[in-house]
Amino acid sequence: MEKIKLISDSTCDLTPEQVKTMDIEIVPAEIILGTETHTDGVDIVPKDVLDFYDRTGMLPKTSAINSERYKQVFSRYLAQGYKIIHFDISSKASAMHVNAKAAAQELGGDIYVVDSKSLSSGQGLLIMKTYDMMQEGKTYEEICEALKVLPDKVQTSFVVDTLEFLHKGGRCSLAALMGAKLLKLHPYVAMFDGQLKAKKKYAGNMPRCLNSYIRDLASEYTSYDRTRCFITHTLADQELVDQVINLTKELFSFDEVLESVAGCTVTSHCGYNTIGLLFITE
User: pLDDT tier at 179 (50, 70, 90 boundaries)?
Assistant: First the structure.
């Protein structure tokens, strides 16, 4: 039987339990709070990011994993006879994919580096689907072939409560920020070709906007992989999370509806009460 090792950077936002069950090696990114550098998921969690912002008004920064670090991790598993499948956050969001590819090319051997074209649980969904294929007995070559097209099928989107974090990160103008506050607008942002872009703007309070968002997704995506979905949020109010979970169960037919807290990267860009429904389309 082939020995296949799944590896991912820490932006996949899978829970420790999921990581343990699938025996995934997580390579953590660095999160910088002011002058202090932390290791994602090791000595910093999303609440620390929000607490830092509350104290200082400053956004955290992220530092991409370099190729030398990837070489260290890949080499360890190649030496044990593994074939490697590695997942990165979208190449248009970070240099990590380019760095991982460089490490793989230098080392040679069976290392397939996947540009998730996604982030957060969208990346996590790809990993879980790959694990499913491994459990089904598919070969390394068969899985790698499937992963050439699978990233384009992941529906990754969120509704953002406040544009304040996006504005401070240079992803939203001051005029857009002020207009959103005045009109109570909440953007629906989605991944398009590996980049997050505003798809629609909802007006009103968050419960109303989230209701419209889930109904819009249900109307647009009538054909999808029913295995699982993620409700992913940045430490959002539980009432909002429960609303999205319940409406998803009502309008979709997923075997599993999984709740996930977005990691430090998404949290630092989107801020409080960002909530998304993520799944694989057909």
Answer: very low
Helix (H) or strand (E) holding 4: strand 4-9
Strands across the sheet containing 61-63: 36-39, 30-33, 61-63
**Is residue 48 situated within a structural domain?**
no
pTM above 0.90?
A: yes
Structural domain boundaries, residue 68: 4-29+64-150
166 class by beta-carbon count within 10 Å (0-12 exposed, 13-18 middle, 19+ buried): buried
Please, which residues have CB within 8 angstroms of residue 31's CB and are 6 or more apart in sequence? 37, 38, 39, 40, 44, 49, 60, 61, 62, 63, 264, 265, 268
- Residue with the bigger pLDDT between 180 and 38: it is 38
| C-beta separation of 254 from 142 below 8 A | no
Cα distances (Å, whole numbers) of residue 233 to 25, 41, 59, 108, 146: 23, 16, 18, 38, 28
Distance, in Å, from the CA atom of 35 to the CA atom of 221, rounded to the nearest integer, reads 44
Confidence of residue 267 (pLDDT cuts 50, 70, 90): confident
CA distance 123 to 5: 16
Final residue in a domain of this structure, among 120, 150, 180: 150
Boundary (domain end) residue, out of 150, 169, 184: 150
Residue 41 included in any domain: no
DSSP 43-75: TB-HHHHHHHHHHH-PPPEEEPPPHHHHHHHHH
Question: Based on the domain organization, do 114 and 224 belong to the same domain?
Answer: no
Q: What is the DSSP letter of 255?
A: S
Element (H, E) at 264: helix 264-270
Picking from 81, 86, 83, the residue whose alpha carbon sits closest to that of residue 99 is: 86
